[in-house]
Design goal:
Blueprint (H helix, E strand, L loop, with lengths): L8 H7 L6 E5 L2 H4 L9 E5 L19 E4 L6 H12 L9 E5 H7 L1 H8 L5 E4 L6 H4 L4 E4 L8 H9 L2 E5 L14 E3 L4 H12 L2 H18 L2 H18 L17
Parallel strand pairs: 1-2, 3-4, 3-6, 4-5, 6-7, 7-8
Length: 258
């Protein structure tokens, strides 16, 4: 059973305690920490997601042209605040275009907000934007305004391929909590979002430096091969657990990092 979002913890707990022993996989130990120790009921395995790690150096464009806002729309105030901050930078960066998932835009009424801000001609709504990775990975900036304890592989892809990431701090997602690999918005406010965005958009050097650190982090902790090895290890452990008494689940954050 894979457990990749904090909001799923109640559902996972409801599955425990049955006759069948479960192996629960999670991309971050912080998610497993939400679950109580179940003894014989389940094993927990940290299986960090992995992506292709680009080797070429990042060359940030002098004049940034595009921002992708990636969100579910569950936290409507957070999404609308971040979008407004980006839209209000249009005078400072007149070439910018904004790409937002169409479903998220409907949930948060972003089209009406864009109309009020006078940026409708710069806004493109993309159906299931995470399925259009080529578009996302060609943009200059990826915004993650929600902190829902949710892991997204598109974030790892962006970090690996040289897209600068600006995000809310999320203690449930390791790479959105340290502040080294992405630019964190510590105290979410309109002015703080504008400051963080403007700082990166106005400096190719800062964007390139951030991307270099992010790429190094992905190469060390989130390779696709390491993810495969971790999942295979979880299956092997599940088979082995049927043959002998279980031990406590492994919540080491570096259990499968290589």
């Amino acid at each position: 059973l894979e457990f990749w979002r904090s909001g799923l913890s109640r559902r996972v707990r409801s599955l425990l305690g049955g006759q069948q022993r479960l192996t629960i996989c999670a991309p971050d130990a912080a998610l497993l920490d939400e679950l109580p120790s179940r003894g014989q009921a389940a094993d927990g395995r940290v299986t960090p997601w992995g992506v292709y790690a680009r080797r070429e150096p990042v060359e940030a464009a002098n004049a940034p042209t595009s921002i992708v806002l990636c969100a579910s729309g569950i936290d409507r105030p957070a999404v609308t605040m971040a979008f407004q901050a980006a839209a209000e930078l249009i005078k400072e960066f007149p070439t910018l275009r904004y790409f937002v998932d169409a479903r998220t835009a409907r949930r948060t009424d972003l089209w009406s907000r864009a109309t009020g801000l006078g940026v409708v001609d710069r806004l493109s709504l993309v159906d299931t934007i995470e399925s259009h990775r080529d578009l996302v990975l060609k943009c200059d900036l990826l915004m993650l305004p929600e902190a829902l304890g949710e892991h997204r592989s598109i974030t790892l892809d962006a970090m690996a391929q040289g897209v600068s990431v600006v995000a809310r701090r999320d203690p449930m997602v390791r790479y959105l909590n340290s502040g080294d690999e992405v630019r964190l918005v510590e105290q979410p406010s309109l002015e703080e979002w504008k400051r963080c965005l403007s700082s990166l958009l106005s400096s190719p050097v800062k964007r390139a430096t951030l991307c270099k650190v992010a790429q190094s982090y992905i190469a060390r902790h989130h390779r696709a091969s390491a993810h495969v090895a971790a999942v295979l290890g979880a299956y092997e452990a599940a088979v082995h657990a049927r043959r002998q008494p279980a031990s406590l689940y492994d919540t080491r954050r570096d259990a499968y990092e290589c």
